[in-house]
């Protein structure tokens, strides 16, 4: 186990709704990254948070937003849900920002959009 | 855009044999690479990483080889065990300006047979 926790484990929403996913980083880690993993594919980078600010973003629309709190935990918010948003959402924490460090993944939140 | 890809979607290996999983990358700016193992219903688990100033790195029963000339990465698993059955992903960082983004390949399913 990595020490990264996510909640909830599973979630079912309908198209057009909004969802908030939560992540607690591993102790001592100040950087949190979010990934979307569609069924049968590799994870796709959404964005990273470092010191409570967005520190890089992948090719996702603005309706995907996030927050990081002083204790380094993080939230991923998705507005106006679409069917294609159905996926496993993974949170990963790392001890430093940037791309040269191991990222430790949580178990993910399985989101189903109907 | 540049991406990470895998040659084989499924690899069937007999228990006790060695496994080799291959990965091609095309982003010449990438200088950090990671192999992850993902079991069903779980988040990716770190296996081993390698930086671009190295050609080979060994861990417990695993070896990663990096060939920068042909942009190729491989993961060797010695004496494959039933617990090694999982999907394996290679990931690259896209260079130090990537802001923590890891680019994953599609994954290789490893099936260990008795």
- Specify Rg of chain A, calculated over alpha carbons: 13 Å
Largest Cβ-defined interface: A-B, 31 and 29 residues
Cα-to-Cα separation, first versus last residue of chain A: 31 Å
Query: Which term fits the overall shape of chain B?
Result: globular
Amount of beta strand of chain B: over 45%
Instruction: Kindly report how far apart the N and C termini of chain B lie.
Output: 41 Å
Helix content of chain B: under 10%
Topology of chain B as a string of helices (H) and strands (E) = EEEEEEEEEEE
Radius of gyration of chain B: 14 Å
The low-confidence parts of chain A are: none
What does this structure look like?
The complex is a heterodimer of chains A (114) and B (114). Chain A is an all-beta fold. Chain A contains no helices and eleven strands. The mean pLDDT of chain A is 92. Chain B has strands spanning 4-6, 10-14, 19-25, 32-38, 45-51, 56-58, 62-67, 72-77, 86-92, 103-104, 108-113. In chain B, the strands form two sheets. In chain B, strands 2, 4, 5, 9, 10 and 11 form a six-stranded mixed β-sheet that branches. Chain B is globular and about 45 Å long. The model of chain B has no long low-confidence stretch (mean pLDDT 88). Chain A binds chain B through residues 2, 4, 31, 33, 35, 40-45, 48, 50, 55-56, 58, 90, 92, 94, 97-108, and chain B through 4, 31-32, 34, 36, 41-46, 49, 51, 89, 91, 93-96, 98-107.
Task: List the main descriptive attributes of the protein structure presented here.
heterodimer, A: 114 residues, mainly beta, seven-stranded mixed sheet, four-stranded antiparallel sheet, 11 strands, 0% helix, globular, B: 114 residues, six-stranded mixed sheet, five-stranded antiparallel sheet
């Amino acid at each position: 186990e990595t020490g990264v926790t996510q909640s909830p484990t599973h979630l079912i929403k309908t198209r057009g709704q909004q969802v908030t996913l939560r992540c607690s980083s591993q102790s001592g880690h100040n950087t949190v990254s979010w990934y979307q993993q569609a069924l049968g594919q590799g994870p796709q980078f959404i964005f990273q948070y470092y010191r409570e600010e967005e520190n890089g973003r992948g090719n996702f629309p603005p309706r995907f937003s996030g927050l990081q709190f002083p204790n380094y935990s993080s939230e991923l918010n998705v507005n106006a849900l679409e069917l294609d948003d159905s996926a496993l959402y993974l949170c990963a924490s790392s001890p430093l920002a940037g791309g040269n460090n191991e990222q430790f993944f949580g178990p993910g939140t399985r989101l189903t959009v109907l | 855009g540049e991406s990470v890809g895998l040659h084989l979607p499924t690899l069937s290996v007999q228990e006790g044999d060695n496994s080799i999983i291959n990965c091609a990358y095309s982003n010449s700016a990438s200088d950090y690479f990671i192999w992850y193992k993902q079991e069903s219903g779980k988040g990716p688990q770190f296996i081993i990483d390698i930086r671009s100033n190295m050609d080979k790195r060994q861990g417990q029963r695993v070896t990663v080889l990096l060939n920068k000339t042909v942009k190729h990465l491989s993961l060797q698993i010695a004496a494959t065990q039933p617990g090694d059955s999982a999907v394996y992903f290679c990931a690259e960082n896209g260079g130090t300006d990537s802001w923590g983004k890891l680019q994953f390949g599609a994954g290789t399913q490893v099936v260990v047979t008795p």
